[in-house]
Write a structure and sequence with these properties.
TIM Barrel; two-stranded parallel ribbon; alpha/beta; disordered C terminus; 5-stranded parallel β-sheet; 7 strands; single chain
């Protein structure tokens, strides 16, 4: 096996289990798939890791339970997932899940009404990036008013329940970390709000799982020194960002880099498992030669209908 840089990959909602199965098979051909605990030992105890790859799944989407869990049991690989304990207990959705399918122009109109800022040049098509500039309290207020004015009911729950979290934890293959309560963009929040979102998510998750919560993922990957200090006080060992970077023992353990997921059509694997593997490595390693070659052959495509891998959610 060729020696490759250690890597941590971020994924979100998984709609196509066949696709993920092919990804896991390809990764196993090149890496040792290891646990978050092994990376914790790598950073804190200087244990050696070579050809190590860890898969992380953000948000706690129900597709983890339905599509991912059977595959990690089948392949016997460790992974970690990062969730809101409040969403699990109260059977609620994150704001970005709730606004899927909303009329963008109407949402834009309501946002303008609540914010009442004529100087903001917001385009309806860019409403989601715009909402990410707001505090979570304002985002939730916009959604509530939209639902009232359009007679829109809240969507059915999209995330795992607290009982399902306990079940996946019991497999011994899944480490569960915190991901705040409401998925705010933490750098937009006041000190009080940011502290509450982080601390309560850690406390509530520890209560559900009856064990200490050691790992954390920043919503949207946004953080600052304030957020790092809160995590340190709560005893968090590893916190993951979405910034690309080299994995080394010199990394700050409160902003560990993760690679984005490979945007590769599932159909590629049927044509050539070798090419499929190379395309996956291209995205992990950022090797331009694979990118240009694969692009020239027409192998790369966005597959939003198959998998949601937006690292900002």
């Amino acid at each position: 096996m060729k020696i490759l840089p250690n890597t941590i990959i971020t994924l979100h909602e998984i709609k196509d289990s066949k696709w993920l199965n092919n990804v896991i098979i390809s990764l196993k051909n090149h890496y040792h798939l290891v646990s978050a605990k092994e990376f914790e030992n790598y950073y804190y105890n200087n244990t050696d890791l070579k050809n190590a790859c860890h898969l992380t799944f953000d948000d706690g989407d129900l597709s983890f339970y339905n599509n991912v869990l059977p595959l990690i049991k089948k392949h016997k690989i460790p992974v970690s997932t990062y969730v809101s304990p409040m969403m699990a207990k109260e059977r609620r959705n994150f704001w970005f899940q709730e606004i899927r399918g909303y009329n963008q122009e109407k949402l834009f109109e309501i946002a303008q009404k609540i914010i009442n800022d004529k100087n903001r040049n917001i385009q309806p098509a860019a409403i989601k990036p715009f909402l990410k500039t707001l505090r979570i309290e304002t985002i939730l207020e916009i959604i509530k008013l939209y639902q009232k004015e359009t007679n829109t009911l809240p969507k059915p729950p999209m995330n795992m329940t607290d009982k399902q979290l306990i079940e996946i934890k019991s497999t011994g293959l899944v480490e569960i970390g915190a991901h705040t309560l409401n998925h705010p963009i933490l750098i937009n929040e006041s000190d009080e709000s940011a502290t509450y979102e982080i601390e309560k998510s850690i406390d509530q998750l520890s209560e559900i799982l009856n064990c200490d919560t050691k790992y954390f993922v920043y919503p949207n990957g946004d953080y600052g020194e304030r957020e790092i200090n809160i995590l340190k006080k709560k005893g968090i060992k590893l916190a993951f960002s979405i910034k690309r970077g080299k994995i080394s023992q010199l990394n700050n353990t409160y902003c560990i880099p993760r690679s984005g997921s490979p945007f590769i059509s599932p159909s590629i694997h049927n044509r050539s498992p070798y090419i499929y593997s190379k395309c996956i490595l291209m995205f992990i390693l950022g090797e331009e030669k694979y990118y240009h070659y694969a692009t020239s052959k027409g192998w790369l495509t966005s597959f939003k209908n198959n998998i949601q891998l937006k690292t900002h959610e």
